[in-house]
Amino acid sequence: MFRTFINAWKIPDIRKKILFTAFILLLFRIGANIPVPFVDITDGIITDPTAQNFMTYLSMMTGEAFNYGTIFAMSITPYINSSIIMQLLTVAIPALEKLQKEGEEGRKKIASITRYVAVVLGLIQSVAYYFYLRNTGHLMLDESGALYTGFFGVFQAVVIVLVLTAGTALIMWLGEQINAQGIGNGISLILFAGIVSRIPSMLIQLYEGYFKQQGGAYYALVPLVLVIYLLMIAYIVWMDGSERRIPVQYAKRVVGRKMYGGQSTHIPIKVNMSGVMPIIFASSILSLPPTIKMFISIPEDSNWNKYFFDLFDNTHWFYGLIYFLLIIFFAYFYAQIQYNPIEMANNIRRQSGAIPGIRPGQPTSNYIAKILSRITLMGALLLSVVALFPIVFSQVTTLAGAPMNIALGGTSIIILVGVALETVKQLESQMMMRHYKGFLD
């Protein structure tokens, strides 16, 4: 990976793209440290540094922006949720499906609708965040120490909500600029930058929360956790490179005095064909119930907390079960979008090819669909192992009397490694295009 980056840096136009991407990420980090007006957050809204709940998850995904009430506190979550909604509606609504098939113009229209939906969702989440700040006493108070009421109270609420919504639109625009003029997927890289920026503070919080307060017994778990993380990284890299190859044999044909075809090749299908997106989408969906909870103030001992909202805590077994099912669902969903067995079978037949032992046409389409279904399930299960293992590990250590909450670690590592691998592949493809020598050279 480092060799690829060094080689890419030597090419002037790729170096410009890398610098542009770094500049956009720098702007993101600057915005993630600019506080919203009328918000009074000095020590963060997360009081327990060892907690693994929805607040900690949002803080991790936003690079502490959510924790300290900055203009990028909503991060890219509204855009991700908007993408999920639009892709589901594209399958369900014929008009959107027709737009998707219209080529570049149709995709531009869908992308424009996705942006508007993202802004609306950002507005809703900003209102929820405002009520949470109001209920937890993190708003600027008047001279008597009470919340502002009347005109100024309304003005305060409008400013906070509009600034947070504008931050959502701005961060979405920054991601699109990376897509257009930089290297890598803009939204994924912004998510990557937010997680990386939080690593130092997370390590400090773990040290102060565990070792100082809980005692030296936790030192014995540190080497084990480090080994687990290293094995998880190696596992993700292995999973990303795994693929199933469908053999294809092309028939010989004579054109004039020359004979073409006759060669054997294969169709590569990646085991983890959807990458990190099922993890991101599943996490975003599971963030909806805690977002609803932010609108209202519910006592900790209420039945709503006990029988509904507490189920979506990152360390709860119900959260792990729903997380697992959503990963499998979105893995199949992305497989259906990326691969069309009927179209693949038709392309093979047009080129006078066939899969050995399989008749052309419908049998070939059924065979490819069967392979895709099995590979998708295998990839989703492999992805679920990394996502769920930290949750299981946290439960085991809790039962053993030495709770080590690393429930968010699996999601973070999958995102970090997945985005890094995707970016390196884009760099390699860019270098290959520029180093290719044609017949005119």
Which short descriptors sum up this protein?
441 residues; mainly alpha; 3-stranded antiparallel β-sheet; two-stranded antiparallel sheet; 5 strands; globular; disordered C terminus
Task: Describe the secondary-structure layout.
Elements: H1 2-9, H2 12-31, H3 54-62, H4 77-92, H5 94-100, H6 104-135, H7 150-181, H8 186-214, H9 221-241, E1 243-250, E2 253-255, E3 258-260, E4 264-270, H10 277-286, H11 288-295, H12 303-307, H13 317-338, H14 341-350, E5 353-354, H15 362-399, H16 409-435
Antiparallel strand pairs: 1-4, 1-5, 2-3
Helix pairs in contact: 1-16, 2-7, 2-8, 3-8, 4-5, 4-6, 4-10, 5-6, 6-7, 6-11, 7-8, 8-16, 9-15, 9-16, 10-13, 13-15, 14-15, 15-16
Outline the structure in words.
The chain is mainly alpha-helical and 441 residues long. It has 16 helices and 5 strands. The strands form 2 sheets. Strands 4-1-5 form a 3-stranded antiparallel β-sheet. It has a two-stranded antiparallel ribbon with strand order 2-3. The protein starts with a helix and ends in a 6-residue tail after the last helix.
Count all strands and give the number: 5
Largest sheet: 3 strands, antiparallel
* Topology as a string of helices (H) and strands (E): HHHHHHHHHEEEEHHHHHEHH
Would you tell me the structural class of the helices and strands? mainly alpha
Q: Give the averaged pLDDT, no decimals.
A: 78
Quickly count the helices: 16
Strands ordered across the widest β-sheet: 4-1-5
Question: Judging from the principal axes of the Cα atoms, what is the shape?
Answer: globular
- β-strand percent reads 5-15%
Report, as a whole number of angstroms, the end-to-end distance.
29 Å
Helix content: 55-70%
Low-confidence stretches are 437-441
Give the radius of gyration: 25 Å
